[in-house]
Amino acid sequence: MEGIDTQTVLQPSTGWLLLAVFGSIWIGLGIYWGRKAKNLEGFMLAGRNVGLALGAATAMATWVTSNTVMVAPSLAMRQGIWGMVAYSTACFGLLLFAPMALRIKNLIPKGYTSGDFIYKRYGRVAWGIFMTITSVYSLAWLVTMGVAGGKLIEVLTGIPYEYGMSVILFVCVAYTLFGGLFAVIGTDFIQSIIILIGVVAIGGVILSRLEMPEIYQSIETTQPALLDVFMPVALLSFFNLMFFGWGEVFHNNVWWSRAFAIRKKVVSKAFLLAGFCWFPIPIAAGFIALSAAPLGINIIDPDTTAPLVASYLLGGTGAVLVFIVVFCSLASSIDSLLAATADLLTEDVYKRLIRPQASDAELRRGASIIIIGIGLLTWAICWPKWDLLMVLYISGPLVASTIWPIVAGLFWQKSNPTASCLAMLLGSMIGLWAYFSIAWYVATLVSTVVSMLIVVIGTLIFPKPCDWRRIAGADHTQPDNG
Amino acid sequence: MTLFSENILSLIIFGALIWTALGVLILLGLLLKDYLNKQIW
Amino acid sequence: MYLQTPTWSESLREVAFIEPVDGIAEAPEGHISLAWSLREGDAGQLPKELPKELPKGAEYVLERSRSPDFADETVLYQGKDRGTFVSGMAEGNYYFRVFIRQGERVGPMGDVLVVNVTYVERQKVVLLLAVGFLVFIATVGVIIFGSIRSNQGELN
Asked: Is 0.95 topped by the overall pTM?
């Protein structure tokens, strides 16, 4: 058995070539598709008329991050079958968001952001808490993507981390700036096809070299716990991870902006389809890790499993394939985050707090500046390799505390605003306490339970019916409560 | 410790790969349908 | 102690685990990262500058066994790498040792590493699954029920 030194699998020059080619194509598409955005609604919400194909693809691609492709194998290596399957259930967030998206469109047809909804439904205090939670989470997500991108490019091609990371962020900022949500969604479709094909290709090549009986026997002999029907460490965190995913999808403007952007007739189907298409990816990616030992590949760091196996099987071509798939996973998430977070800050902070009378043109300019600003902030944190993975993990209890306030806010007319504020606040704090004092695998679960109980009990004791039509109103500077 | 059988592993892995490939076909097919109906976006 | 005349670049030296270093480790999730290297040795016996490379044609061998006498050993790894990631271990004790092999010749066995795997108690897992499942049902229920009412025009 030989370990493979992936740093020499691709030459830096190949890496630069790939970055230049993909970067140019993506920025070119950004400029081309950006011409469709005639106004603010075009720029931020792609005209509110995106069809089923693009709608499903963008939701699916955005939910595929470098974690899906790189961490899934690592998870399979450590937690076996249940590890992969548990990860796959992260798509349930997309599936459940399908009816929510339709409700959102029916309730606030002219809405722009998730912050909009919280402000109108629950008032200023809830909005403030919500904005804090979503900012922490969004920034952590952005930074971890940037760091992952830089590291991966370095491992595969030898290009120094700082350069690789900078180029990825620069390309994403550029095409998002020029093209807005049209560019984001258009490129997401291409990226989703590449990701799906790439994952199947690697799986297919593995199966051309190994038979399933060989694979099974190897794992059964040397790594039997990976096949355990009751694998404790994987099952421990099963619902914890699931609610982390729900918290991410239900609250974040990345998904709300898609709900607003996709045509009403197909919005539910789009999210259902996205969830459906996403489900098998962690398993297919996880399979890569399960095949490492049977193939005779020595894994030292489980996070490098995917590139190692691909390079072993396909040499330079394999490494290029991994490079492209991960580039697409990163870009499809970074662009969505940039666009959606900029939308949120433009609508909720710039327009609501600073210049309520701003015209559409001013708002569009504001959004552009904010995209650049977020890009620079992310780059500044990525530069010293401050991997905010830890922050991303602890944002689990934060985002999970928003699940019940949002669900109740959409479907339960009497849902009490103060209860929702307390639910987010206490859910976050107690969840964080649980993270550090009990264990990481209960934090999000604890937060969800606390938040749910506060919302339900608070509303049952102090119901506060809202006027749905008021929330649907176009004037989004007036909250429902002070 | 009870282990998943080889058949289950095969089902899960082959199933996932075929399902992923199916996703490609569905998305491309839908794009074609939207294109023909001029309702891509 | 060594099987070869002291041409140090060709001798098969002892290999020691550098991760974990204590000779005994816990692996509550059934996986552990191992790293090893050629042992430096006592100052008196060996030259000051020890070659870090393996002799030509030599490779490390990592063995694992469920019993301390290595009666049922499995070779987990053979090659030039100085580490590996071991996963999928069931509950109980595992014993690891690593040495050099060059063709027919085998270097001295280093210290045995003991890894103890004890999973979290079953009850804890079942409890968390049960709580999670209840929350799951409640949340899905509200969404589905609310969605149906909304589509029937009751939430306007």
From this structure: no
